[in-house]
Structure formats: C-alpha cells, structure tokens
Write a structure and sequence with these properties.
With 477 residues, this protein is α+β, with helices and mostly antiparallel strands.
Length: 477
C-alpha cells in the first residue's frame, strides 16, 4: 500500500511521513537505483570481457561445473533459462584451482584461484570508477543459497532467512517483490553494498514451502560436526548446494505423475445425465454413500413446494476394512442430483467407467448419459468454450453447497488426523509425531503444515480445520 506524503509515518513517530521517514526512503531508493544500474552495466562489461579474453572454452567449462558435471542436468536443463543465475555465478563466484586446470583437456586463459570479475579488475583497473570498484569488492565470491521469504513489500523488496545458516536479510528489489510471496523458497545470492542488500543472482522460479524439507536434509548433511553453518561453509559446499537446486528445478518442470488413492492416474472427469426425477435417481443410487443413511442424506436436500425431492447430493463413498476392522473411508466421487439432471465428479478414468456401469445397472435407460468432460488439472484459459462453462456450472454450484463442503471438511479432517501418526517420506519415514521430537524434524513438519495453510483458497478452505487440528496435536499451534 502506497503511503501519502501527508499520512502519519508508519514508524509510529506521530509525524507526517514527509517530515519523518520519507527523505530516508527517497535517499535509499536513489542509492538502490544508482547501484543497481551500475551493477547491471558492470555485468554486461565483464560478460563481454569474458567472451573476448577468455573464449568459448572457458564459458563451456563454467557451464559444465555449474551443472555439476551431471549428464542428466546437461540434457534436460537449458542454461539460457537460468541466465539470471548462471551469469552472476560464472562471473563473480566461479574459479578454478591449479588441480582443476590440470584436469582440463584444454588450456584456459583464466589464472588459478581467480574469478572472472577478479581478472577483469586486474586487467581493466584504470577503467573502473570508484562506485564500480566498491560494487565489485562487495559482491565478489557471493554465496548462493536457499532463502525462505518471510515478508514482502510489493514495489520495494522482501525479507528472508537463509535456511542453511539462519542469516536474515532485507533485500531491495522491485522486480522480485512483485513475484515473491511469504513462504516461498528462493535460490539466490545476496550482497550488501553500503546500506543496500541486493540480489546478485537469482533463480527464475520459486519453490513451495513444503520443499524446505529437502533443504533441511542438506543442512543436516553439511553440518555434521558443526553446531551452526556459516557463509564460509556454504562456499565450501557450493557444488552440493547447487546440485540440490538443480534437482528441485528439474523436478518443478517434471513433476511425478499424480494418482488417486487407488493408484489410478489422476484425471478429473465430470459426467452428465438426464434423469426422469430426482427421487428416482436418489432411490437408485443412495446406497453408494456407504456410511450414510437415506435419512441423513436427505437432511441437506432441497424440496419443491409440492414436497417432491428437487435436489440432493450423494457422496460416493467406499467403506474400507482392514484386518476385520473398519478404517477411514475412501471418497470415490460426488453425485449431484438436481431435478432432471445428474452430475457426477470423479478423478480417474477407471472411476468414471465404474460409475457409468453402476448407473446403467441401477437405472438402465431411465438415466440417459449425455456427455463427459475431462478437465485439465491446469486452470482453463480465458477463452475456454462457453458451452463447457455451462456444463461445469453444476459442479461449481455443488462446491458451494454447505452439505458438500461439510462432508469435504470431515473427510480432510480425518486425513490430517491420521497424518500425524503416518510415516511420511519427506520426514525420512518418520511420523510427524516422531519427527517433532528433534529440531530439524520439527522444522520440517512446520514447513509442511504452513505450506498447506498457504495453499488454501476460498474453494479449498474446508481443509483448514484438519490442518489446525494437526498443528495442535503436534504442539505447533
């Protein structure tokens, strides 16, 4: 939110903004713009210098090391897409030792233990002005690490904490502040020049908070005998840290196949039927909600003035048993009956075919199948077909139905209730209840639950009660 010059200063002094913090803010903004523009210009100059003085073989050697000499990364990751990260790393952080140079097939004109920027400072010393020199000295050999975004001030910058070292930063960067959100995991390098902390290089994408568990595992692996990691430790483990980033980056563009609880590939289907009456369809299919009685299902139904059933929802639920004992049920889909139409939502091809067979057996030709829509897991484009919008209207209406949302809330509450005592791969096979007993495990569980909260939308807020229960059960509320 923009602060007017005549508003009270947000610092709490009681003075007008223009008489208090505005001059300082304007001075800092001017300093940032001057430093940022000079830094961008410097990067261009040093890149040109590298291409002319060091040659293509040097750049290729930098690319190979940046991708940690991994053939899979080299085959699947386009370095151009990581230019905002790779170029600063190659110019300001990368260097070769004597042993590295001896192992290379071709001789390179880059001296041992010297970054490209350091060589530029040596060769172009007379052409570097005082501000450029100050910037080069400040950003030399930056640390690239995983930052958790803790706050964002749109149009200005963001605050963050290095997950590996715990160091905090207040970064000035307008572009990043328009993209990042609190809870994001952001891979970048940050340097301080005078009173300005700025991005030296940054990933083009951000990761969800739940992926913090992988970074915590890396931190545990690096720490070993250290009580706390430092920036020097991050320098020493640069390749290991970058390897994790590249793995997460690749995973972000090649996510694992999604499946439902039966192991079927996830594919959202909506089926549409014409029916003779709501009552006939309800009587034929109400048994599909295994734990519910007809009477309980009708409690949230709508009736016409004549007393005839007009609309009702039937959650398609399978009763699960394990070793002779009843276990939490599986929701297979949702059936919305509304006068002369029936809409069924399921999440796989197998379940779509199964419900069609059930309806045919129960109602025969009395239920006329009209169409089925396979819905993308990605949000539809703005120019989606208007006809499809009309067909999806019953589904959207169903999601606003209090009875359906109450059922979904119960279902997700049971999920989170069970989750606290289930083995979770992201926790190394431990249950959340076991994991919270140690600091790293507790931090992982907190990240998973906070990530789930951050992902809630008005359409999915029925999960909130279950998440809050899990937090309370684990002593995290």
């Amino acid at each position: 939110m923009k602060i007017s010059r005549n508003d009270q200063c947000p610092c709490g002094s009681g003075k007008k903004y223009k008489k208090c913090c505005l001059p300082k803010a304007e001075a800092q903004d001017f300093a940032y713009r001057r430093i940022s523009q000079t830094f961008q210009g410097l990067t261009g100059k040093i890149m040109t210098f590298a291409e002319n003085a060091l040659g293509q073989a040097t750049i290729e050697a930098a690319v190979e090391e940046f991708l940690v000499w991994d053939e899979d990364f080299e085959a699947t990751i386009e370095i151009e897409q990581l230019a905002d990260l790779f170029v600063p790393w190659a110019l300001y952080a990368w260097y070769l030792t004597e042993a590295d140079l001896e192992d290379l097939e071709h001789e390179l004109p880059l001296p041992a233990d010297t970054t490209v920027a350091e060589l530029y400072m040596q060769k172009k010393a007379k052409k570097i002005d005082s501000l450029e020199l100050k910037i080069l000295q400040a950003i030399n050999r930056p640390v690239f690490s995983f930052q958790e975004v803790t706050g964002v001030l749109p149009g200005s910058g963001f605050s963050c904490t290095d997950i590996l070292t715990g160091q905090t930063h207040d970064v000035t960067d307008r572009s990043a502040s328009e993209i990042l959100e609190t809870g994001d995991i952001f891979f970048c390098a940050i340097s301080r020049i005078d009173d300005i902390e700025m991005l030296v290089g940054a990933s083009p994408i951000r990761f969800p908070l739940s992926w913090k568990t992988d970074v915590i595992d890396l931190r545990t692996s690096i720490k070993k005998d250290h009580s706390k990691l430092t920036a020097e430790d991050e320098h020493d483990h640069d390749a290991q840290i970058r390897d994790l980033f590249l793995a997460l980056y690749a995973a972000a563009f090649n996510p694992p196949a999604l499946t439902n609880t039966d192991g079927d590939p996830l594919a959202l289907h909506t089926l549409y039927y014409a029916i003779p009456s709501a009552k006939e369809a309800f009587d034929a299919l109400c048994h599909l909600s295994a734990p519910e009685s007809k009477e309980s299902l009708l409690e949230d139904a709508a009736f016409a003035e004549s007393g005839e059933l007009a609309a009702v929802t039937i959650p398609w639920i399978r009763l699960e048993t394990s070793e002779g004992e009843t276990s939490p049920n599986t929701v297979l889909g949702n059936i919305l009956i509304d006068e002369g139409t029936m809409t069924i939502d399921v999440n796989s091809e197998n379940r779509a075919q199964a419900i069609r067979d059930i309806i045919t057996a129960a109602m025969g030709d009395r239920a006329q199948f009209k169409t089925a829509i396979l819905k993308s897991l990605i949000a539809p484009s703005d120019d989606a077909d208007d006809h499809n919008d009309d067909l999806l209207a019953p589904h959207e209406a169903a999601m606003q139905d209090p009875g359906i949302r109450e059922h979904l809330e119960k279902m997700h509450f049971e999920h989170w209730k069970k989750w606290v005592d289930e083995a979770v791969p992201a926790l190394g096979g431990e249950t959340p209840r076991e994991a919270v007993k140690n600091p790293d495990g507790r931090e992982k569980v907190e990240a998973i639950l906070r990530g789930a909260e951050l992902n809630l939308t008005p359409e999915s807020d029925f999960q909130k009660k279950g998440i809050l229960h899990a937090k309370k059960e684990l002593g995290l509320s």
